[in-house]
């Protein structure tokens, strides 16, 4: 198990998460409506950092903070090993809420634990490309004699889909900028925008990632923001006529520079602002006043509100995956012991593509 040591201030570090060994009862009581699952893949997501803040009634982001001394939880792909629930049987593959541990005892609930029906695509994709959100808070029963509240934020595939098509109102020929563009969400947004016939530019934090954007995901242009001394100038170079759509993943200085380069009536989908998650005091965005002047629409969103679109999303995306028209890069950390480093690495740009942890391959 990966245990949450205590509430975190400042940058998350590996020592905030402890590996614990315990014993597991491999049977669940008949009729208990629970199932014992073996966790195969775990999803590493930036929102998990926000669940490490000390609960504060004035901050909704802390309503679902992890409990010190207990395993952290998130999204994963798992296999049913034993079931006391009539709708789930041994061998069923599920994706949904699980603890960060080798085995979890779950109470399967529709919209929280989904049976995997399409197995002709890699199972790991259900942590990212094909993952969705759960919109319930639920009691997750673990292998230890306790329970805790668990709720999950959005997953990359649906996030990119809802954020781009619903929030950005894209049109063919428009100019699109994506930050954290090689990550779990960003790589898909860029590909969706290209499918729509947009001009697409991405920013990322290394040469390897920039190459990926241009040569694998088909972005028209890309730059390494860590090597640019002037983000405003970098954006002007890539967008001589300005930006129609900004898919915002990072916030801070990038957002400030983007606003300067937005075209009138541009749209900003505020998906996330990872550059702020480890800060005690968020950075100021100095150019916000230009939003009015340029008539820019900036809209935050949570994928949780688009759960009803999941089957539409699958119908849209599965043919593209099967035809190889959408590609998805994953960064796979091996073994539960590597999970703390994988999660921490998100906040230092160590992941190349969707970060996940393989706990077991079967
Ligand atoms: P990624 O796979 O993109 O991983 C995070 C990446 O963010 C890193 O690899 C790094 O890439 C970049 N990054 C980290 N720290 C900073 C920093 N200080 N400044 C700039 N970039 C940084 O994560 P996801 O694709 O899963 O998530 C992307 C965003 O989407 C996050 O903000 C997340 O919170 C949000 N999100 C929102 C959802 C919603 O429902 N609204 C649902 C899911 C995600 P690089 O090397 O390029 O710096």
TrEMBL record:
Gene3D superfamilies membership: Medium-chain alcohol dehydrogenases, catalytic domain, NAD(P)-binding Rossmann-like Domain
GO molecular function: oxidoreductase activity
Xref: InterPro entries: ADH-like_C, ADH_N_2, ER, GroES-like_sf, MDR_fam, NAD(P)-bd_dom_sf
Start and end residues of each Enoyl reductase (ER) domain: 107-357
SUPFAM superfamilies in the cross-refs: GroES-like, NAD(P)-binding Rossmann-fold domains
This protein's UniProt keywords: Oxidoreductase
Keyword match Oxidoreductase: yes
Keyword Oxidoreductase attached: yes
The protein, known as: Enoyl reductase (ER) domain-containing protein
